[in-house]
Amino acid sequence: MKVEFDRSTCTGIFNCVHEWEQFVEDRDAGKASLVGSKEVSSDLYAREIPEDEEFEAEMAARVCPVDAITIYDDEGEQIVP
């Protein structure tokens, strides 16, 4: 599975950091950051999700009030949101 995080959409509510430890607060920027991700385009970050962290990653995406987090299965199909 893969996660994409649109940092420009993030509003700094930080719900995601409570669901998955790979999201951390960046209080200076007022946005979350996705640990271990690479920028794939302007303010869009992506990384693979370890198998044992899939549930937490999905929950982080589901609690994001602005849908800044998208989860894709191994075939590239969007599964969250």
UniProtKB/TrEMBL annotation:
InterPro entries: Fe-S_cluster_ET
GO molecular function per UniProt: iron-sulfur cluster binding; metal ion binding
Transmembrane segments: none
Keywords annotated in UniProt: Electron transport, Iron, Iron-sulfur, Metal-binding, Transport
One Pfam family per UniProt: Fer4_15
Coiled-coil residue windows: none
Protein name (database record): Ferredoxin
Organism field: Halopelagius fulvigenes
